[in-house]
């Protein structure tokens, strides 16, 4: 059976982390996914931490440190960039472009992957998309010059990754940057409200439990 999830606020998550550390468990911290993993009686458990809780590649987790992170959301025709300190949004910007073919509702990049046509309208849409990625990267570079980020909260359609990282204005981080935290949630068109929804999601902790286990069954899961 599929595992189930229970969402926790920051205070509840901190309590569960303290419980886990006091229990005799073989905890493993996965920096990429920002979560603790462990086994109990052959069953797999996980706890994804809120992005506002600091962790590093060495497996050190600091429950008190204030985290500063940048969020980048990209879909065909739009992108959002936001800077956050703890739970406060310091800055945000939404970008748009004329990338979607109106009749079919398909992005021009996806259309060229399947059809290969290159008419005037197609070139205009691609040029508009290229300009959007340049503007996004300019904004990112500005933020990276102003802040030291602990994490990069990131969601981008795979087909758009090459266009982001090959724009004329260089992205200020590599696509294999260890600090990238891929947001484990489906992304809708990234306007400001969607970005705030993503912020609320990654500010939560998430317990991943075997389907037959209830939160109260194990003392260290009680928040």
Q: How many H/I helices?
A: 5
Strand order of the largest sheet: 1-14-4-3-2
Largest sheet: 5 strands, antiparallel
The fraction of residues assigned to DSSP E strands is 25-35%
Helix-strand sequence: EHEEEEEEEEEEHHEHEHE
Return residue spans where pLDDT drops below 50 for at least 5 consecutive residues.
99-106
The shape, in one word, is: elongated
The class by helix and strand makeup works out as alpha+beta
- The portion of residues assigned to helices is 25-40%
**Through-space gap between termini:** 25 Å
Query: How many E strands?
Result: 14
The average pLDDT is 86
Please compute the radius of gyration using only Cα atoms. Answer: 20 Å
Account of the 3D structure:
The chain has helices spanning 10-22, 108-114, 120-146, 161-165, 192-202, and strands at residues 4-8, 28-30, 35-40, 43-48, 54-55, 61-62, 68-75, 78-85, 88-96, 100-101, 106-107, 151-156, 180-182, 205-209. It is an alpha+beta fold and 223 residues long. It has a 5-stranded antiparallel sheet. Residues 99-106 have low confidence and may be disordered.
Outline:
With 223 residues, the chain is of the alpha+beta class. A five-stranded antiparallel beta sheet has the order 1-14-4-3-2.
Question: Descriptors for this entry?
Answer:
single chain, alpha+beta, five-stranded mixed beta sheet, elongated, five-stranded antiparallel beta sheet, 223 residues, 5 helices
Indicate the topology.
Blueprint: E1 4-8, H1 10-22, E2 28-30, E3 35-40, E4 43-48, E5 54-55, E6 61-62, E7 68-75, E8 78-85, E9 88-96, E10 100-101, E11 106-107, H2 108-114, H3 120-146, E12 151-156, H4 161-165, E13 180-182, H5 192-202, E14 205-209
Parallel strand pairs: 7-12, 12-13
Antiparallel strand pairs: 1-14, 2-3, 3-4, 4-14, 5-6, 7-8, 8-9, 10-11
């Amino acid at each position: 059976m599929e595992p189930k999830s229970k969402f926790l606020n920051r205070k509840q998550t901190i309590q569960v982390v303290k419980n886990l550390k006091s229990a005799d468990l073989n905890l493993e911290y996965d920096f990429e996914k920002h979560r603790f993993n462990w086994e109990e009686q052959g069953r797999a458990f996980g706890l994804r931490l809120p992005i506002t809780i600091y962790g590093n590649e060495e497996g050190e987790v600091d429950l008190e440190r204030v985290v500063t992170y940048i969020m980048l959301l990209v879909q065909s025709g739009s992108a959002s960039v936001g800077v956050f300190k703890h739970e406060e949004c310091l800055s945000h910007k939404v970008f748009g472009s004329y990338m979607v073919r109106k009749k079919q509702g398909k992005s021009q990049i996806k259309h060229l992957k399947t059809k290969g046509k290159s008419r005037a309208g197609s070139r205009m849409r691609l040029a508009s998309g290229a300009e959007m990625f340049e503007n996004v990267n300019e904004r990112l570079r500005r933020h990276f010059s102003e802040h030291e980020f602990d994490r990069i909260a990131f969601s981008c359609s795979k087909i758009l990754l090459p266009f982001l990282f090959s724009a004329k204005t260089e992205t200020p981080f590599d696509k294999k940057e260890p600090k990238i935290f891929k947001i484990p949630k489906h992304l809708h068109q990234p306007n400001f409200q969607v970005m705030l929804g993503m912020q609320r999601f990654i500010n939560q902790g998430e317990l991943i439990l075997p389907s037959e286990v209830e939160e109260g069954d194990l003392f260290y899961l009680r928040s």
